[in-house]
Amino acid sequence: MKKLLYTLAAVLVCTGAAAQNPTLYFMEGVPLRSQMNPALAPQRGYFNIPVLGGLAVTAGGNTSLDHLLFRRDGRLVTLLSPSVSSADALSDLHSKNLVNADIRVNLLGFGAYTANRKHFWSFDLNLRTSVSTQFPYELFHFFKTGESAQVRNLGLSSDAYAEAGFNYSFPIGEKFYVGARVKFLVGLARAKSYFTQFNVSLGENEWYAEAVGELEVNSNLLTIPTRQEAGQDGVYRNYYQLDDMEFDAKFKPAGYGAAFDIGATYEPIPNLLVSAAVNDIGFIAWNKASSMHGTVSRRLTFDGAQVDASGVADIDFDLGELKFEQVDEESATRMLHYTMNLGAEYRLWDRRVGFGALYQIHKYDYAALHNLTASVNFQPVRWFGLSGSYSFIDNRASALGLGLNLQSGLDQFLCRYRRVADQEERAVDSYQAGADELQSGHRCPDGETRAAPARLHSDECGVLSVAGAAHGAAGASYQGAAAP
Questions:
Q1: CB–CB of 151/135 below 8 Å?
Q2: In angstroms, rounded to a whole number, what is the distance separating the alpha carbons of residues 359 and 363?
Q3: Predicted structure pTM score
Q4: How many angstroms separate the CA atoms of 220 and 239, rounded?
């Protein structure tokens, strides 16, 4: 459990409690705009640097970093540490604690205009990963106090797949511009563990769980061995040994699927642009040959549990003690997590200043994350752009974003900073204040510039990005853009 919490904390450190990069949506010339709305076409063709074409990481939920990590004696510990009192650990948790994350790595991308210079097409090859977790409050209460609890709906799911997408966008009349992206999906790995019941109680030196749940795994990259053991009824059955799982380097598909993105922009009056998009509408059919399926409906025993005189519990969790009985493999078809973007921007003073609003919905396995962003965009000349944004994230947090865009005919530099913090007032140390995100870099556009109408946007080809929390950077990438 402690290792899992450190992993979830690392996700939040690297990404912040952010939705899908809302600061970028109204920044002219930023490539990720086309991933958010396929109708936001670029002004010129582009070619992404292979493998280094882009890294996008988003995360969200109702559990922030300072609810998982605490500073004790000059170091960071999880809320499960005995040095953290139960009152401090449990005070800010919710009845259902959610953490979600998505990662997109661009392997290849290129695009160009057709001969009429009005229609645009592009192709992208990406690796994608999605993670969703749900931890009920009662589970944390047991781990901190040792008091018996009835735990319901405990879950963790993850999937990884490759996508090859073809995007085509074109104008309809003078005011509409539409785009669609069709994607072929190759499933690499999928795992889901969900307990409808996980009632916990404390013994003398161990703890127990009355568990009813299911394990689903689809992957040719992962092998989970089984071992015959006697069940509670004395009958020998095969049980998965989760602590002995092995990874295989061969990338053999575990399923196939399809999806699409669709978007549009509309200019009802001069200088007002309204946009809408729905992304990742589709599915992956995971095949039976790659399936590992197990169930549990029994009393589980876990070694290692004690409660000190102050009432703080120190309880260990061993993954190998989860006894999922092997059952018949089966194929499964699962939908993707969709995203919806609704935006509007009004430009003033010969389009040098713009005011925008963006509403986002991102659906995960256990919840949907809502995000509302207000943006101010300033571009006095073609080569210089400055954008600022303020976001309200699911009524639980807020974010302040700042973007700088510098470009010439052959090169462009982009720098974007975003600060995420809880709305709740509290005394915070530097690690509690939220998360910082910094992006900077340059790009080299490809092809002849098109004299684009107001609804089309500028020309960017690459970004070097660094993301991290208040204590420093956590990752970097070079983007050779999806050029909007």
A1: no
A2: 13
A3: 0.80
A4: 19
